[in-house]
Amino acid sequence: MTDTAIAPTAELVKLENVVKHFPLRRRGFGRREFVHSVDDVTISLEGGRSLGIVGESGSGKSTLARIMLGLQEPDSGQVDVAGVQVTSLKRKDDKAFRRKAQIVFQDPHSVMDPRMTVRQSLTAVLAQHRIGDGPEREARIVQALREVGLEAEYLDRYPADCSGGQLQRIVIARALLLEPTLLVCDEPTSALDASVQAKVLNLISQLRRERELTMVLISHDLRVVRLTSDRVAVMYLGQIVETADREELFTGARHPYTLALLAAATHVKGDEQVVAQGEPPSPVHPPAGCRFNTRCPLATDRCREEAPQLAEVAPGHQVRCHRWSESRELLAEITGTEPHDVNDGV
Amino acid sequence: MSVLDGPKTITPATLTPDSAPAGTVTRRNRTRALLRQPWPLVAGGAILTVVVVVLLLTPWIAPSDPAEQDLTQRFAGSSAAHWLGTDQLGRDVLSRMMHGGRFSVTIAGTTVAICAVLGTLLGILCARVRGAFDEFVMRVCDVLLAFPEMIVAMFVVSILGASKTTLILALVVGGWTPFAKLARGVAMEVDARGFIEAARALGCSRSFIVLRHLLPNSLNPLMAHAALRFGHKLITVGALSYLGLGVQPPAADWGSMLAAAQPFLSQAPHLVVYPGLAIFVTALSVTMIGQGINARRGSRS
Amino acid sequence: MRFLVRRLTVLVAALLAVSFLVFLIPYLTPGDPTRKILRGRVNAMDIDPAQLESLRAQYGLDRPVLVQYADWLATAVRGDFGYSYTSQAAVMPQIGAAAMVTLVLAVGALGLAIAVALPSGILAAMRRGGPVDTAITTVTQAFVAVPEYWLAPLLILVFAVKFGALPSAGWAGPAWMILPCVTLALRPISYFTQITRASMAEVLDSPYIVGARARGLGYYRTILRHGIRNALIPVVTLLSVWLGGLLGGSVVVEVIFGIPGMGRLVFNAVHNGDIPMIQASMVTIVTITVLLATVTDVLYTVINPTVRGSHVGS
Amino acid sequence: MEPLLEIDSLTVSTRTTSKRLLDGVSLRVAPGEVLAVVGESGSGKSLTALSIMQMLPRVLEMSAGRMTLAGTDLTSLRRREIDTLHGGRIGMLFQQPRRMLDPTATVGSQVAEPLVRHLRMSRREARRRVLELLADVGIDEPARRAQAYPHQLSGGLAQRVMIATALAASPPLLIADEPTTALDVTVEAQILQLLKQKKRELGMSVLFISHDLNVVSSIADRIAVMYAGRVVEVGTADEILTQPEHPYTKALIECSTLRTDASGQLYVIPGGSDTARELDHGCRFRPRCGLTQEAHLEQVCDAREPVLLSIGRSPAEHECRCWGTAEEREGA
Amino acid sequence: MRPIRPLQGAALCIAALLTVPACGSFSSSGGSANAATSSLTIALQFTPKAGYALETDDAFVLAQVGCLETLLTYDFDSGELQPLLATKWTQTSPTAWDFTLREGVKFQDGTALDADGVAFALNKLLKSATPPRAFTPKVVSGVQAVDASTVRITTPKPSTLLPYRVASVNTGIMAKAAYAGRGTDVIKHCTGPFTVTAQKPQQSMSLERNESYWGTKATLAKAEAKFLPDGNARATQVRTGESQIGLGIPSASLEELSGDKSIVVSEAATPRTTGLYLNYGKAPFDNPDVRKAIQMTVDLDAIAKTIYSGTVEPASGPFAANEPWAPKGVQPAARDVEAAKALLQKAGYGPDKLSLSLRAYTERPEMADLAAVVQEQLKQIGITVKVTMTDYAGMEPALLGGTYDLALLSRNHLTDIADPIGFLEADYTCKGTFNISHYCDPAFDARLAQANSEKDPAARYTIYAELAKQLHEQAITVYLVTDKTIAAKRAGVQNFVDDPLARYALTPQLSQTD
């Protein structure tokens, strides 16, 4: 599925030390508090490759996607996408950039204006970019719909008259109208039923192949990421805690959190010790030291005091953990099992 | 559970999960809304249309000159010549009501229109710009909202003297604030919805986003509010005229007609009943329109 | 409570802004501002031109406007707004008395409104879509369109003149409150019923009602324990807005029923161009309204814990 | 063993259009057993739960069927008895735990409600018991949490609170309607662990509703698969997961694994489940079914609705509603 | 009535709301149904605004309720001065008058009325910031006590009219203690037949019979005076029986009241005339033909019959026919629209050539209708009239500045003292302070000066009559109607007299039976 036939080119997406903290509503004269959404993230992705970003709610992965697309201004850091300095994007260059990078959001119903028909929504995109004239736009739209497996009859429907799966395909068609080189998919299937999810995932990989798209796919579901990504980055509380090529990550993950995710995804019957304890802490007050220390069965005093840095544990495999060298073994001891392959679940 | 292929026809609203898109609910309700158009909207709209048309055509269709007197025909009841009878100077009540209504409705309408446009623009601007500007405008709103409308109006009239313009001005001073608050709220709500961000991601211009997405999606609650406000303003204008602070004689509006008829309440009740009814029916019609719009909105979201 | 501090800051700022506007009234109205200011200070029908200059100096009216404002504010804060042009008496005690009257009137009207609106709103919500709901909704919506200057004379005609059951005008005891309160209550009844109905309907549709029933509370107990309290949150908010609104908004009713309240006071003051009275009443009304809003906000946080500080996660 | 909960041909339809939303659903839950009901959205899982709780929305009516809980007929209960049922004999978990709690009341007071209602505890007693219950479901600092308001809890904590509430009166049956769907995966695993642990401790039965076969696989003793308001297959978890018979079950399992075929494609069930609603005769799965064509059963499937037939080695343990499988068996 | 406290009031209100039927009995206790015959409620037109400061109109209220008394009083019908607190008045020198006080008069607080107290009270009035026009330092130089029962009032110039000044209600005398604070403390400080026992600002006053009154004791034991500025409200009060007497009933309410058998309406001529004022100082009103034309056009009969419900007489000059200074035999101008048109034509104003503005004020309820009628009738002779109505304050600058065309005004010609000289002087002399007609005729001024120095009233009145006739015949002002004051009372009220000068209402003779 992840076709490596596409030759990697130069770096298309490059984020350096990106930081984004959202201020909370100030109360009284107290210190303004911030949600540490994205904390010092550095990512790069070569053209034609696909990157999966995995994390739970509140990990900052969606914020990261928005920063890539210039939809959210980072507090600091460099964002370089498709040769464009996204952080200092001028208004006049905005349209040109949009034609290079597009995004598909989680909930297709919310991203379509309920008062516009599918035709209106799609034509508007072309009109805004001054692409083609009336008949040509119509032709392009019909073509785009066909490409995602929908008939032209959907053009006159309102979003409310389409099912989620259909609508998600329309949204993908809309994003591809501008023929971008980069497509960011933020949880593209998590709002869909299992049978529909497969359909959309198939479509995404197919389009990626046909159009030689560079992709960033964000999901909380390791299996989805595994299907679609060449490289995987795992995020926890605004930080990347582990990043590696797909196979390396799924077989040789070293961060206890990654291992917890893998374990949780397998849904093994029985009473194994759950490897991540407790609840994720608030991103407003991330724990000192290693951010995972409150839930990590391996946490030591050092973990509670000193924040670990991303360490290169193998070529292209970085882990943010003081105890990465022994984590797999120690966890295996605790749970009494070897980490499972995620697909072993059912 | 997340649910997209196929409408979730059977899940009671109480169990609709967070993640369920509004769409599934919307589709069901739209069909229902089509089946059951809110009757207040239809009825209110019909009444208002009649009122407005009559008032527009008044110079041509009014049975007589509203100032024409017949001192021998005072307090006459309904007759072929005077459908609604005559007043204390033998003037035709119907004609006076038609002409008076033009005052009442124009002043209320103009006021609401100005308030709506001004308030909506400021509100949307607040929602778009945010920051200090937003804060400032909202605090100004708070202060103005603290003044009861009648007090502000009386105050302005006392400074500038009673006139149509003063009246409108007096009502606009505080009248724009609810629109600003509402528009800001709605715009922020709409702004936070996915399709605005999607439009940005697709490279749509700001003006396109505001005009084609933000405004149409904010319009319904604003229109409903405007309708409700119109009814309210109609009554307030009448109150000011009633107190002698509004439309000044010899011009008359429904409020001042009521005031003038007060001494004859039991002798010639028609003089009190008809103008009061005119205010009531007109105010009721716009209220119904407002409620209708709200009901339609309510059944959709 | 930091939030309260913030609220109070806004309150003070608002009052400063309003007081400055109010201070400027003598300058904004036609005529010589100095004379007008002095009339209120010296308490004279008019100022002897010969004394004008010395008085001007004595009362510091030759200083910059902002300094004068500070002065004026300092006296105003002590409740001294000078003397009324018409009654020749200090304005503040008169306003105090009038405000009390209006407060009683407003509380009476709102009490009546609540007494009618809450049960009907809740009932309508519980019987949503049925004939009871339609009847309640239709009638209360129509209430909003009834001009009080139409209703009041009709009420007087029926209850005072025809039946002689209630007094027609004046302010001498509880019986005198009934007709004005009924007149004033009509509109709040309408709004409160609609708000109660909408909010109760929303609450009844809320998952936590299902949750509470699943705990075995039973339908009526659930509504009692978890429904009504939640449904009342928006009503409470509305209450103070209305109380403030009635404080100056009952002009027509006070005039028709001859009630010596704030509305008639302001009406007379405006009519007579009684500037000190206008100034003091404006400041009073705004102070009370903004204070009420603050009280509501506090109350709101008390009855609605969700607006209090939230802990995300642990 | 005598089943704890027995549902026999439960049918639910709308009052106005008489459209059947649940059609002849029969389920049995043995004491101490976890029965998982699996299906996609609109299949009728949640509705089944509501029917058992006698909490159907006014617009719907239970038009047929029999339901007994430990021998008591649930359909003929009086209002007061229903109140006792809720929380007293059946505990219930929901998908959005935070939203099922009154936002204006403290957590503790709500956990105490079933104690006071069903166990007739005094307020003080209840308050003490609440802390134990909270600690029991793995909540740290129960005293502090009891004072908290629902919005101050994370999703996982809120679900723990709900579990504490649902189990407060030790009901013999727990209905869990998608209890982990809204939770993060790591937390989901914890909650599932907790449920398993509680079930073992209290020996209660669980009716576990989920769309996610992966989740179900970790907890279920038996599985019932629903499609378009009908149970299409029911059997032990092992059998359903390893030897599914119904084409829909097979497809669902195939989808759930997210495994690609040789060409790199994921398996997709053709058509959409909404088409099933429009059918008024024959097998509801027919338009999406591969088997129909394969086995040349178009006429049969089109004409008659298949019945739930017992298959497999231990009768009554594995049933399937499909002409195709029935045919096979007959043929075999 | 005791003032209600807010909380108590609220509680009572709620209680009352719950028991609406019970309220009937509540209100009827103050009503006529089972009222004690010795008490009564009166609805007054004026609301005291200035804390009963005697230099203001508040003095009228105090006099009306039978509290405040003056040294002398003026009989409106006979035109003569009569003793009240003073029994004798003599001019001891051209600039001094001596007044002998009545013996045995006591204030309601028990202190005796003596010359010292009277001098104190009157000097206080004289020195007030805005002394009443009847008693200003311009016309009175001082008041001294000559002996215990004699008060001397001196004037800067010789004055024959001074006794009239001390008949003005503003010169009422109250006990010294009443003047202690700002305004006047009215509780138990008068000499009159009724004692104020309680008062609620803007609302009402409670009165009791003054048992130690020097004259005839009041028949009523108790009375309540309500201040109701709204005329309709006063009329309603009488209809509902909440008040037994209502003063200043608007003529518009008359037809309603007259239908009620249990109500008696009384009318009394007032020294007040409503006129259409013309701006003499401005074209075209310098042309007598235009003025005449307007005078001939306005239908006085119709106005009197409709707007005033027939309570008033068409005016034939500034004074009512029954006044001693009214010219004899003068008739209201005859209506003749055709002649008026001809006059207008003659003056050079053909049909629709003349466009005038008419100003009127909103304080008097009949003005709006009056303006409408005048506007409509002048249309008949081709004069277009644009009506502007404001409150009086908004209109006065235009009147005094002479920037108006037509104005409707109701003028009292006995404002200060019971002699119309002040009115004639102010309104029609070249230097008149209220000469809004901007009329100036040296001959007129000279004739009026003669009247001022004339001691014999009859001779004075002749001059007034002559001047009044001139004003009417030259149509300086188009006098419309001579006003009347209307009072309504319930049939059970006996011996009520409506004073045209609004000086008294509650009198010792007043009684109430069922």
UniProtKB/TrEMBL annotation, chain A:
Residues 13-262 form the ABC transporter domain. Belongs to the ABC transporter superfamily. Keywords: ATP-binding, Nucleotide-binding, Transport. The lineage of its organism: Bacteria, Bacillati, Actinomycetota, Actinomycetes, Propionibacteriales. SMART domains: AAA. Pfam families: ABC_tran (PF00005), oligo_HPY (PF08352). GO terms for molecular function: ATP binding; ATP hydrolysis activity. This is Peptide/nickel transport system ATP-binding protein.
TrEMBL record, chain B:
It is found in: Cell membrane. This is Peptide/nickel transport system permease protein. InterPro entries: BP-dependent_transpt_permease (IPR050366), MetI-like (IPR000515), MetI-like_sf (IPR035906), OppC_N (IPR025966). Residues 1-24 are annotated as: Disordered. Belongs to the binding-protein-dependent transport system permease family. The chain crosses the membrane at residues 39-62, 103-124, 136-160, 166-183, 234-252, 272-293. It comes from Kribbella caucasensis. Its main location: membrane. Keywords: Cell membrane, Membrane, Transmembrane, Transmembrane helix, Transport. Residues 101-290 form the ABC transmembrane type-1 domain. GO terms for biological process: transmembrane transport. It is a multi-pass membrane protein. PROSITE patterns: ABC_TM1. One of its GO terms (cellular component) is plasma membrane. PANTHER family: OLIGOPEPTIDE TRANSPORT SYSTEM PERMEASE PROTEIN APPC, PEPTIDE ABC TRANSPORTER PERMEASE PROTEIN.
TrEMBL record, chain C:
The chain crosses the membrane at residues 95-118, 149-165, 171-190, 231-257, 277-300. Residues 99-296 form the ABC transmembrane type-1 domain. Keywords: Cell membrane, Membrane, Transmembrane, Transmembrane helix, Transport. Its main location: membrane. It comes from the Bacteria. PROSITE patterns: ABC_TM1. One of its GO terms (biological process) is transmembrane transport. It is found in: Cell membrane. The keyword Transport applies. GO terms for cellular component: plasma membrane. It is a multi-pass membrane protein. Pfam families: BPD_transp_1, BPD_transp_1_N. CDD domains: TM_PBP2. InterPro entries: BPD_transp_1_N, MetI-like, MetI-like_sf. PANTHER family: DIPEPTIDE TRANSPORT SYSTEM PERMEASE PROTEIN DPPB-RELATED. Belongs to the binding-protein-dependent transport system permease family. This is Peptide/nickel transport system permease protein. The lineage of its organism: Bacteria, Bacillati, Actinomycetota, Actinomycetes, Propionibacteriales.
From TrEMBL, chain D:
Pfam families: ABC_tran (PF00005), oligo_HPY (PF08352). The keyword Lyase does not apply. Keywords: ATP-binding, Cell inner membrane, Cell membrane, Membrane, Nucleotide-binding, Translocase, Transport. It comes from the Bacteria. Coiled coil: none annotated. It is found in: Cell membrane. GO terms for biological process: peptide transport. One of its GO terms (cellular component) is plasma membrane. PANTHER family: ATPASE AAA-TYPE CORE DOMAIN-CONTAINING PROTEIN (PTHR43297:SF14), OLIGOPEPTIDE TRANSPORT ATP-BINDING PROTEIN APPD (PTHR43297). NCBIfam families: oligo_HPY. Belongs to the ABC transporter superfamily. This is Peptide/nickel transport system ATP-binding protein.
